[in-house]
Each structure stands twice: as structure tokens, then as C-alpha cells.
Amino acid sequence: MSGELHAVHAESDLSLLARIHAASFDEAWSEAALRGLLKTPGTLAFAAPDGFIIMRLASDEAEILSLAVAPGRRRRGWGAALVSKAATLAHRSGARTMFLEVATSNEPARALYRRLGFAEAGRRRAYYGGKEDALILSANLPLMPLGNPKASTTVATQPRGNDRDAD
Ligand SMILES: CC(C)(COP(=O)(O)OP(=O)(O)OC[C@H]1O[C@@H](n2cnc3c(N)ncnc32)[C@H](O)[C@@H]1OP(=O)(O)O)[C@@H](O)C(=O)NCCC(=O)NCCS
């Protein structure tokens, strides 16, 4: 895993997380909200230079609470690297299953999770804004390595270079 991906401890990381969250979601989480969330028992976060993941561990389950990569830095492998890092740590900590919620219209996230082996485990109707359904996805841990569907080989989850167009 890249040395650029680190556990979030420092106060300075919170502004990065808040900035990327605001650029990625309709309802931005403030630094104060993130600080409070990260103090909740079992909650862990990892940050890359332009992305982050927050998850919660409870008993033998892990839940992804938030994941985002800055808009101009997507499709370079950071999202997969962040999920893989969190899943590896969760598995080492005793988690056997990882869960998350994703909006039905969020095709990029659904494609990422599909590639990593997540499958639909349920649905919350009108969960987002009283309108859009949330899909509950789950995967057994450890996650499968990120496979390349265009080839028969398996590729690593290391982020790629900066040579690709962003979304
Ligand atoms: C979802 C998100 C985190 C993905 O991050 P990312 O760094 O772009 O993802 P990766 O580069 O690791 O993508 C890995 C694979 O996921 C799939 N994928 C990711 N984005 C995709 C897109 N826009 N369209 C189709 N497939 C996509 C592809 O299979 C991709 O592999 P490939 O690039 O070799 O084809 C990013 O789009 C994001 O921050 N979105 C806004 C916030 C959000 O929706 N978070 C998830 C909430 S549940």
C-alpha cells in the first residue's frame, strides 16, 4: 500500500476531509462534525492526498461511513486503495463482513464496490432526501483483490499515476 495513505489522527487532516467531502456530497460534513464522528468508539479513518475513507468497527462487522476522492483525482485507483486498506484493517481486527449504503443512482461507487466483490444485501426505500433508495451492500472479508475485467490477470490495488482523465 502506498505510503501516501495514512491513518487520520492529526487535526490538520480534518480540513482535507471536510474539503473533499464538500466537493463530493450534497450535504457537506463540517470539520466539527468530522471531529465528533472520529471520536466515536470504533471509528477509524484513512486519508490519501486527495481522498479519504471513514469506517466503523463493531464486533465482527465493519461499516463504511463515508468514502470520497476529490473530483479531479478520480479513476486513478485511490477509491479502491482506500476501501482495500480499510477492509484489510477491519479483517485483521476481527471483522468478517463489511457493509455500506449507496444511492441507487451512484453508478461510479456501485461500479467500484462491484469490482471489489460487494453484493446487494438490502434496500432502504426513499432513504436519501425522502426520495432516493439506498442499497445496502455487503462483502465477506477479506475482500477479493481488484480484478481487471478486461484481462484474465489480477491487478494490484496500488493507485495509478496521474496520466488518466478524471471524471
Ligand atoms: C466512488 C469514488 C470514491 C471512486 O473513487 P475513484 O478513486 O475514482 O475509484 P477508482 O479509481 O479506485 O476506481 C476503481 C474501479 O471502480 C470502478 N469505477 C470507479 N469510478 C467509476 C466510474 N465513474 N464509472 C465506471 N466505473 C467506475 C471502475 O471499475 C474502476 O476501475 P478502472 O478505473 O480500472 O475501470 C469516487 O467516484 C467519489 O468520490 N465519488 C463521490 C463520493 C461518493 O459517491 N462516495 C461513495 C459513497 S457510497
Tell me briefly what this model is:
With 167 residues, the chain is of the alpha+beta class. It contains 4 helices and 7 strands.
The poorly predicted ranges are: 149-157, 163-167
Please identify the structural class as seen in this structure. Answer: alpha+beta
Cα-to-Cα separation, first versus last residue: 24 Å
**Helical amount among residues, as a percent range?**
25-40%
- The total count of strands amounts to 7
Please state how the strands of the largest beta sheet are arranged side by side: 1-2-3-4-5-7-6
Q: H/E series, N to C?
A: EHHEEEHEHEE
Oligomer: single chain
| CATH topology term | Aminopeptidase
- H/I helix tally: 4
Tell me what the structure shows.
This protein has 167 residues and is of the alpha+beta class. The chain has a single domain, classed as 3-Layer(aba) Sandwich (Aminopeptidase). 28% of the residues lie in helices and 31% in strands. Strands 1-2-3-4-5-7-6 form a seven-stranded mixed beta sheet, with helices on both faces. Helix 1 packs across helix 2. The chain is globular and about 35 Å long.
